[in-house]
Amino acid sequence: MPGTEMANDRHAELTRSGLNLIQQAISIFDAKLRLAVCNRPYQAMFGLPDELTRTGATFQDTIRYLVHRGEYGPQDDPEAAIRERVDQARTFQPHYMERKRADGRWISVEGAPLSQGGWIAVYTDITQIKRQEELLRARSEELSELVLNHAERLSAANRALAATNAALEEAKRILTESEARTRHVTAMVPAHIAHMDRDYRYTFSNNQISMVFPGARASVIGCRCEAVLGAETFGRIRPHLDRAIAGQPQVFEITHPPSGRRIRIALTPDQNGRGVYILSTDVTAEVQAREALTHAAKRAVAAQMTSGLAHDFGNLLTIILGLQGRLARAGLPPEQAEDVQATLAAARRGVRLLDGISALTGGREHQPQPVELRAMLDDLAAMTRPTLGAGVALDARIGDLPARVMLDPGALQDALLNLILNARDAMRGRGRISVTVRPAGRWLEIAVADTGPGFSDEALARATEPFFTTKGSQGTGLGLSMVYDQIKLSGGTLRLGNAKGGGAQVTIRLPLRAARPHLVLLAEDDDAIRAHIRAMLTAQGHLVIEAGSLAEARGLTDLAGLTMILSDLQLGDGSGAELRGRGLPVVLMTALPPGDPRRSGLDCPVLTKPFGDTELAVAMAETDD
Known about the structure:
This is histidine kinase. This protein is an alpha+beta fold.
């Protein structure tokens, strides 16, 4: 990139030097009627101040200066004259004209539009030619010899003008190629590069904004930032924009509300004071990796601190529970019996705390399987309602989703149970908890909201940290940390926030993968294995057609309604891989180890025997993606 920038700078300098050698005055204005480039004769011809010859000077300001200087003669309404010329310029039409200036000199003006928008104009002083024409008209009979001489001079001038025009065309070509290269390079960058003026209006974009901010329109030139990104996102960015426009560079991160992506934005003030340059990049993966490393480090510290203590405390708690249980059965007086029960309750809470620490520091495995979400939510509601109390209402709503999706039901149910009980505690026994499940593009979105006081600023920043709690001695600080870990393990995201109407809201997003039922052709030459796998398939809701050989399977592949083939790789009469290419998704099974060369080159899921329900469901779901 540095080499490309240096080359572009050299090309631009060469272009400016070449233009300055041309005797005609030249100016190029872009599609926004802002000066792109001019040469020194342009400034000298019209006596323009330096600020009107710098890149970015507006055509309107230039015309206003010339009108007030009398370039176009006396004007009854100067502002009307300015508007007329600006409106004519916006049409970008080819034109040629000759006019007499206020100082009596004549100039010709030739303009041509550019393919990228805007136009190039060439101004030539033709005063001498005009005087010659007048002289010829006045003394045509006496100056026949002079006419020939002047004709020769005019012919030479035309040749010089033709050479100048050729040089001008070459300069135009170089400028066009340079601009095209710059746009091509910026369009290849996986980020949004833009320029915004002081009114928050985009003046340049590399058309990558929708890649960084999903849902934003692709074409933003001339549009205000608020209209492109939405009021909420603009409200988060505006204070930084104002500081950058005032001359202070800014680098900051925001969460894009519609998509939940984490966006890093760098703002560089425009050195000419015309706004700010913007570089926006999606750093969601980086932030998630950073958070995962932070949590992993904290879990490692927690594991080191507790691994030795947990064993000893577990033994102590076992002894305490045993002794207190013996006392509880001893028929003690009511007061002592109550103390024994309190001691038992405290010891059991200690056991639960150790279980939580073990779950936090120990390894986990993601075990997805086909899940009926509506049934799972009904079970969750039935399980939690008795613990909520009479003053807490629980609503569960589910959107238009596939009948069954691939999820780890145990992990998800544990996570939702944690969130519901946290919401109950926050509302102090009175309020409403809602669980909303809906599709969000390629994600399954689950929102748990309550009508409590909401998250504090500290809780929003630290709630997923192990051992952080706002419940004092009543909390372990493990609940949300365990939820975070479970969701990350499932390939999802967790976002904490406060609802607009009040109360906390936790939003979970998990990959949405449908687990639709299939009519499966099962090809397996071992009767016992075939019966076992048939039972696994039917338990998952699939219908099964069986084949005991490759030849039998070939004859069944054209059955109406068949949607999948599950075959052993090594059948008695050939390879099950031969069943590929028949228009149906194929999953293969084999007892060969993963590194065996006979498994290489297979473009379909391969299950290693023996396998369980989870592995089978995941492999079949891969063919639905």
